[in-house]
Design a protein that fits this description.
- The structure is a single chain.
- This protein has eleven helices and two strands.
- 74% of the residues lie in helices and 4% in strands.
- The protein has two domains: 64 residues, Arc Repressor Mutant, subunit A (Orthogonal Bundle), CATH 1.10.10.10; 147 residues, GntR ligand-binding domain-like (Four Helix Bundle (Hemerythrin (Met), subunit A)), CATH 1.20.120.530.
- Helix 6 runs antiparallel to helix 10.
- It has 228 residues and is mainly α.
- It has a two-stranded antiparallel ribbon with strand order 1-2.
- The longest helix has 28 residues.
- It is globular.
- The protein starts with a helix and ends with a helix.
Length: 228
């Protein structure tokens, strides 16, 4: 079985729950063998754990469990949100307000390395347009990378949590709204281009359209589901 980095992330998340603050995770070589994945897949999972504040990655030394109070806060936030229509729309509204601000801040703060990382993710998305689950994982990865480009460590944690809570169902959405999905994909390139050009007005305009399409798709999908 080919594991995605999200599968390894979940396994490591469970593992970390039983570890103490400051405890070191096994070496990358050991974890690659244990989980049967490539080093790249493992590193993506570790980066995500780091973004969520569960581990601290120390170059040349390894990964260490951090104070998990922030993670408990995230879990609490997830637990109070229902999966009904009203909650999904509320979360999408919060995501829009938060991520538009993140897009603007990324346009001001992104380094060349950040922009190169965004372009690499977009190239992966181009190759995975027909792979619905794979594309969904890359969509989250792109939004996380934009949040990291702000160079504020709190934004990636919030983006990951809200994305997870917003009921994103890309597999069904692509089947029902193929043209809207194409629009969302084009917006990703537009957002990256605006960040590259440091164009705050453009990145907000494209971002607003991006979330308007999301809202339309979510509303339409729930209307369809309510009739079945």
């Amino acid at each position: 079985m080919d594991y995605l980095y999200t599968d390894v992330y979940r396994k490591l998340e469970e593992r970390i729950k039983g570890m103490s603050v400051g405890e070191k995770l096994p070496s990358e070589r050991a974890m690659v063998q244990e989980y049967g994945v490539s080093r790249n897949v493992l590193r993506e999972a570790l980066v995500l754990l780091g973004d969520r504040g569960m581990i601290e990655i120390r170059p040349g030394k390894g990964s260490y469990v951090t104070d998990k109070k922030d993670v408990r806060l995230v879990k609490h936030f997830e637990s109070v949100l229902e999966k009904d229509m009203d909650s999904q729309m509320q979360v999408l509204e919060v995501r829009e307000i938060l991520e538009l601000a993140i897009f603007e801040k990324a346009a001001l703060n992104a380094t060349e390395e950040d922009i190169e990382a965004l372009e690499e993710i977009y190239e992966e998305m181009e190759k995975n347009l027909s792979e619905k689950t794979g594309y969904g994982n890359l969509d989250l990865k792109l939004h996380m990378q934009i949040a990291k480009a702000t160079h504020n460590d709190i934004f990636p944690i919030l983006v990951h949590t809200l994305y997870k809570c917003s009921g994103q169902r890309l597999v069904l959405m692509e089947d029902l709204f193929p043209e809207s999905m194409k629009s969302i994909h084009r917006d990703h390139l537009g957002i990256i281009d605006a960040i590259r050009r440091r164009d705050v007005k453009a990145v907000r305009r494209i971002g607003k359209r991006h979330f308007d399409v999301d809202r339309y798709m979510l509303l339409s999908m729930n209307q369809i589901e309510s009739k079945t």
